[in-house]
Design brief:
Number of strands: 5
Oligomer: single chain
Strand order of the largest sheet: 1-2-5-3-4
CATH architecture of the largest domain: 2-Layer Sandwich
Helix content: 55-70%
Order of helices and strands: HHHEEHHEHEHE
CATH topology of the largest domain: 60s Ribosomal Protein L30, Chain: A
Length: 267
């Protein structure tokens, strides 16, 4: 009996060594056959050990195969569930991507609409005329704080943009009219900027606009001039800070078509 027991143990050991890479059905068959053969051999004892081993091996193999098959089916179900869960997650992600793509497309369409609206607004701004005064058309008004460098006659970036807009009006609506840049100041005397008086400050700012129109936009010298009025033609009350701010300005004006003829004095 001991001999058969050792044989059975050896069979189990061999079967276990063969399990690597096998399915659960194959593993169950091998283990069942090994265990069954051992049990059959022991049961048969010394009388018919070979027959007991064969019968036990066959029965054990069948039982082991059935048990292993159940394990395989469970693993297959688990894998199918994992695949289904991953597919569901993928479908959700694809749905999110489609929604984002739709949002992006809608945003692009909205951007195009806004760009169109901006272009139309720019066109309207380019066509507008500020005010008529003294028979002239004021196409731009440059404020010292907004459009010039502090205490100087040079334009800043905003001043250049405002003159660019004014040029569009001039070229579209007044292509053959003369232009004049008129410099104005508030009533405060010059203290810190180094100008001799408000006359020079108003003149410098008017000339800054004149040179930009000539140098940047090619306005001909015979079609443009500059004037300075110091504090003497205010647009607002000089007794308030806001009024003074409005008075520190340069007006870009389009002159009337017909200019009075100048007769030279003669004795």
């Amino acid at each position: 009996m001991k001999k058969h027991a050792w044989a059975w143990l050896c069979g189990v050991a061999v079967s276990v060594s063969l399990l690597s890479g096998c399915s659960w059905t194959q593993r169950g068959t091998l283990i069942g056959a090994a265990v069954g053969s051992g049990i059959g051999a022991i049961a048969a004892c010394e009388n018919h050990p070979a027959v007991g081993t064969a019968i036990g091996a066959a029965g054990g193999a069948i039982v082991g195969a059935l048990v292993g098959d159940q394990f395989d089916q469970k693993n297959a179900r688990d894998l199918k569930n994992q695949i289904k869960n991953l597919q569901d997650e993928l479908n959700v992600k694809e749905g999110v991507i489609k929604d984002k793509d739709k949002e992006i497309a809608e945003l692009k369409d909205r951007i195009k609409e806004l760009e169109k609206e901006i272009a139309e607004l720019r066109k309207k701004l380019g066509e507008r005329v500020a005010v008529k005064r003294e028979g002239m058309v004021i196409v731009a008004q440059l404020l010292a704080e907004t459009h010039y460098r502090p205490g100087r006659g040079e334009l800043n970036e905003e001043g250049m943009k405002e003159l660019d807009r004014a040029v569009r009006i001039i070229k579209e609506q007044f292509p053959d009219r003369e232009i004049v840049a008129r410099g104005h100041t508030d009533s405060d005397p010059i203290k810190y900027s180094g100008w001799k008086s408000n006359w020079e400050l108003g003149s410098a700012r008017a000339l800054g606009a004149l040179h930009y129109l000539m140098d940047k936009h090619g306005i001909k010298g015979e079609m443009i001039s500059a004037q300075t009025f110091s504090k003497y033609r205010p647009a607002a009350d000089n007794s308030t800070a806001d009024g003074k701010k409005q008075n520190r300005r340069v007006e870009i004006c389009v002159l009337p078509k017909t200019q009075p003829k100048i007769e030279r004095y003669s004795k």
